[in-house]
Amino acid sequence: MTSQKQTLRKLLSSELVFQITLISTVFLATAYNEHSIGDAWAKLALYTSYVLASLIIGYVLLPKYFYPKRYMAFSLYLVLIIGVVMLLEEAVLEQIFYPNSRGRDFPGVFHTLLEILPPILILVSFKFAWDAQKKQNQLEELNSVIAESRLQFLKSQINPHFLFNNLNNLYSYALADSPKTKHIILELSSLLRYMLYDSQANLVPLEKEIQCLIDFIQLQEMQIESRGKVEFQIDGKAEDQYIAPLILVVFIENCFKHSTSSQAEGIEINIQLKISEGYLELNCSNTYSANTNTQELSKGIGLENVKSRLALLYPDAHQLKISATSTVFSVHLGIELEKVRTDHSSGNHNLTEKRDPFN
Prior knowledge:
The chain is an alpha+beta fold. It is built from ten helices and eight strands. The protein has a five-stranded mixed sheet with strand order 2-4-5-7-6, covered by helices on one side. Strands 1-3-8 form a three-stranded antiparallel sheet.
């Protein structure tokens, strides 16, 4: 948290220096020439109105309307601000500083626009470029975190121990000629395919992510068998909603890890997934023995990494609460999901095979 605050202060201070330098440079470049030295105060007053307008456009209109693609509202407010600047210049400032010349009559809208638009356009354009560079830096950081997250998850799950346990179970069922054998093969292949290939996208259909959870939980449940019970419940519809891949499964993986590594029996794992319009809630809890892994509860595999991904992917759009008693470890995660977007409309949004959990 301290490092994040220091980074934020550094960004704010650098942007402040950038704005002061930019405003001063544009003022010197546009307001002064060899014939206007005596009009310094008038030029400064007029330029101040341009600066205030550009700051409102850059720090209010751009983030609130332009970046969220609310172009109509942005255009209306932009015209309003330009109109206010024009009125302020013609009706107030020129009456004060040029009462016997420019203040006597209105030169016309076109002439006034040619005077006020260039400095405002320059200031807003540099602010836009600054924001674009900042977004690019965040994207590069996000890509780095995502790559590290995928690597850590694959190392923790797709490893010889994970495959060995499931292949052993598969072999046992095959020897007994169990009808579950085909189902186990399907679950394992589906899970591996999703983690290796489908999860490479920045966003995936929520249906596929849930199917990954179902496959993962069913494979883990087979290793628990008579040692305890697993409850998994899904409420709501996932169609036409998207989520960043391999976020939910990290918390579920930790449930099984904490219980199975510390308890020989009496394992209880409860997982609830609630989906409403544009919002997802994950509530999961597991029993554990405090004598064996209490210190490791907040340091589960991939847990710190997924926190970083949530902060970057869903800033101000997620809630994460992790708590522990002497016997139960709980996680609550709420995410404001991505809506359906045109760049995803060509993909396959449906599961190849829909199945009820544990049937």
